[in-house]
Amino acid sequence: MTEPRAAVATAITTFALVGATALAVPGTSHAADPYPSRPIAMVVPFAAGGPTDVVARSVAAAMSKSLGQSVVVENRLGAGGTVSAAYVAKAAPDGYTILIHHNGMATAPALYSKLPYKPLTDFSFVGQVADVPMTLLGRHDLPANTLPELVSYIQKNQSKVNLANAGLGAVSQLCGMLFQKAIGVDLQTIPYQGTAPAMTALLGGQVDVLCDQTTQTLPHIKAEKVKLYGVTTAARIAALPNTPTLREGGLKDFEVKVWHGIYAPKGTPPAVIDKLDGALKAALKDPAVVARMQDLGAVIVPEDKQTPEGLRTWLASEIDKWSPIIKAAGVKAD
Ligand code: ASP
């Protein structure tokens, strides 16, 4: 837990210094500076080293190259990603504070009755980034080797089995909720501030089951440090070609695919959004990003989705898709 706080502290120190310099310059000349004239904060809602953070850092490094300014990742943790989204919704709409977030942008309105922002109207959209499959994992010594064995073990030991996630609004929570519904159980869930600490707990045997993205799980799967029960996508994935989908394992219609978008506060000038979108598109063609995403099992979205309109229409469709599912499941964060 200390690591993410340290990351925020470092970023804030950088901005405090930059802010002091900016204050010394009269407002008009500062406003005339070509964008970007100072570092940009990319706010990440989950712990450093986790799946969202890994995608963010790769893309931020590449965006820095084409923008000619550092894009500094700032981890702001809490409440399944809603702390970060609320922070960016209220930030100055000047292009110096942007957010990278996943499906949580679409699920939070149904989970939180007092959400302090409106995903569709409190942001300017930059574009979608990459889609990531999830994997259903167990601790290495769980006495179940296949999905059917896991399901029967959980059904027989419901009161003993727990499920880790990254809080209400995280995709790990969404995946875990759908899994529990599909097999008719109600497990104790243990929320962390990201799946990086949740994975540490799984590796240490303190939690039993975790649903998480390949961007974090592949190395642990390959090292056989966890048990793998299936992938959450509708079809098998290139990174794990011999692993069945949860559908193949008997969970009818099961599908969770994690998508990522980059947002700025509402009212960010169109010229700034254009620069950010251009930098995003360039980043997603950068050979270092392409190779990193491939290694992590992530799929870069087509160029028409790497756009403000591509993200906005997708977010609207995802809100429409998940709100009734979450309401029917009766899950509430507050
Ligand atoms: N994978 C996490 C989630 O469940 C987020 C993270 O830690 O990056 O949403």
UniProtKB/TrEMBL annotation:
| RNA-binding in keyword set | no
Give me the segments passing through the membrane. none
SUPFAM superfamilies linked: Periplasmic binding protein-like II
- On the tree of life, the source organism's domain of life is Bacteria
Q: Any signal peptide, and if so, which residues?
A: 1-31
Q: Which Pfam families match?
A: TctC
Specify whether Signal is a keyword of the entry. Answer: yes
- InterPro entries from the entry? BUG, Bug_dom1
Keyword list, A-Z? Signal
What family name appears in the similarity comment? Belongs to the UPF0065 (bug) family.
Q: What is this protein called?
A: Tripartite tricarboxylate transporter substrate binding protein BugD
Q: Which organism is it from?
A: Cupriavidus pampae
The taxonomic lineage of its organism, from the top, reads:
Bacteria, Pseudomonadati, Pseudomonadota, Betaproteobacteria, Burkholderiales
